[in-house]
Please model this.
Amino acid sequence: MKKHFRLFVGFIMVVCCTSCNPQNRTELATNDKTESKYFINSDSPSSIVRNIEQDRNGSIWIASWEGIFRTDGKSFTNFTNKVSSARFFSVLEDSKGNMWFGSIGSGVFHYDGKRFRNFTTEEGLLDNNVVSIYEDKAGNIWFGVFGGASRYDGKSFRNFIIHENEMDEDLKGKTFSERPEFEVNSIIEDKTGRLWFATRGNTFVFDGKAFTSVSHLGKPFTNVRSVIEDQKGNIWLGGNDGLWRYDGNVFTNIAKGFVGFIYEDKKGNILTSSETSEGWALSRYNEKSLTNKIAVVPEIIKANEGMVFGILEANDGSIWFGTLDGVKRFDGKTVNSFNAMSSQEYFSRLVATRDNC
Model:
C-alpha cells in the first residue's frame, strides 16, 4: 500500500508542477538513516510554508499560506491572523529590527514591534503580490513582486518593471492591479554592490544605473528561483537549469534538474531544495568538496514526497525547511514534522500548488 501511495504521489507531482519546473530529474542517493517524527500541533502551520527567518532575539518566523507564524521551537503563534487572511510568501527582519511580511494580494506588512502598517499599490508599491524581500547595504528594502521590483527608502517607492527580456526603472508611476508575468523570486546585493534579480523570465544584474541580463555561452538564465552570494563571494543560481556557481569569471554547473531554493550554512556548505528521482529533497553540498572542476553528488538529509521551499539554519544548528504540509526541523539525525496530515488533505494541497508554486 505504501509503495502504491508513493507512486501515486509521484504521478500527481508531474501533473501539478509541469508549469513550475522541468521534466528532467537529478538522480541522487538517499540517506536511509534519516528518521522522521510527527507532532500534532494545532497551532503550527499545516499548509504550504514558503519562507523562514530567525530574528535577533532567536524567534523563528514562518511565512505560510495560513499567515505569518512565530515560534520558539516549541509553541507556535499565528502572528497575522487578526491582521490579514492573505497567504504569505516572504518574511524579513531588517537592520533596525523591524519585521516585513510579504503577502499574495494584500501587499507588504511592516511591524515595528508595536503596530502594523500595510503598504500596497495605493502607497506606491508596484504590485500587491510580494514574493521576496531583501535589504541592501544602504538600508533600502527591496520587494520582488509580480511584474518587477520595488525599492523603499523609508519614505517612498522606486519601481522597476520587467518588459519581456529587459528590466528598467518606471518613471511614470505605473502599478499593477492584477498579477502580470515575471515575478521576482529572489534579490541579493553582491560584494561589488551590484544587485541580482532572479525572475521567472531572465536573471538581471543592476549596477545602480542599468540592468544587464545574465547569460552563459549566449543563453540567458531563465526561471531562476533562488540566488545567493556565499562567504567566498561566489554567486549561486538555482532554477530550471539546475544549480550553477559563478566565481566572478566562470559559470560552473554543479547539478542538473530543477532547484527551488539555495541556502549557505555557517560552515559554508550549500543546502538546496531540488527535484530527485524519488520526489523532492533537501540536499547538502559539502564545502570542502566543492571546486570549480568537480560537480559533487550532494548528501541527502531529507527526501520528501512533496515540494521543499525555504531553508533556515537556526542558532542551535538545526535546519528548518518549508513543505506542502507545514514546517519541518532536521537536527542532524531526525526530521521533526510538527503537523501530521491525512493522505486526502495531502493530495488536495498538492493539486492546489498547480497554479501557485
